[in-house]
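testing teh design pipeline on a random one, pls ignore if ur not involved
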């Protein structure tokens, strides 16, 4: 589906505030409310807009620590991969997981209350997934730019 300049403006506005009323989005995009509403519905139907969710502050929820965990599997057999991915999907403290190229197989983003909690998640959960060989953790000291906006060029 081709995305035109109006769609880009709508998407940029919704990335700023997805709860913004259609009339306000229309104001910012120089369109009237009806075409904006129609375009938003089309962007949703076409899967450009996948959904809407609040952006939560992990620190205010007691999750003071953020870490990236690099994980290697023993072997790349279907069973190992399926068990690993299933365990990751069931772990609430894993907020993102990516299969990656390079020395490691997965990059896992974990949130935790503190270093001790991260240790528990790593030692008692991630390392105990059948088929996991190596785990390396990188603790985030400061987030310079949070991952919230996609470039709309």
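output:
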């Amino acid at each position: 589906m081709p995305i035109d300049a109006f769609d880009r403006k709508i998407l940029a506005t919704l990335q700023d505030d997805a709860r913004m009323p259609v009339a306000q989005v229309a104001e910012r995009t120089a369109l009237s409310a009806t075409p904006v509403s129609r375009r938003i519905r089309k962007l949703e139907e076409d899967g450009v807009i996948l959904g809407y969710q609040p952006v939560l502050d992990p620190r205010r929820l007691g999750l003071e620590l953020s870490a990236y965990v690099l994980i290697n599997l023993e072997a790349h057999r279907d069973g190992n991969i399926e068990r690993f991915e299933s365990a990751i999907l069931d772990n609430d403290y894993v907020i993102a997981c990516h299969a990656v190229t390079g020395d490691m197989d997965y990059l896992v983003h974990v949130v935790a209350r503190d270093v001790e909690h991260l240790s528990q998640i790593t030692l008692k959960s991630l390392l105990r997934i059948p088929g996991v060989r190596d785990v390396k953790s990188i603790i985030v000291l400061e987030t310079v730019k949070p991952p919230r906006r996609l470039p709309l060029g």
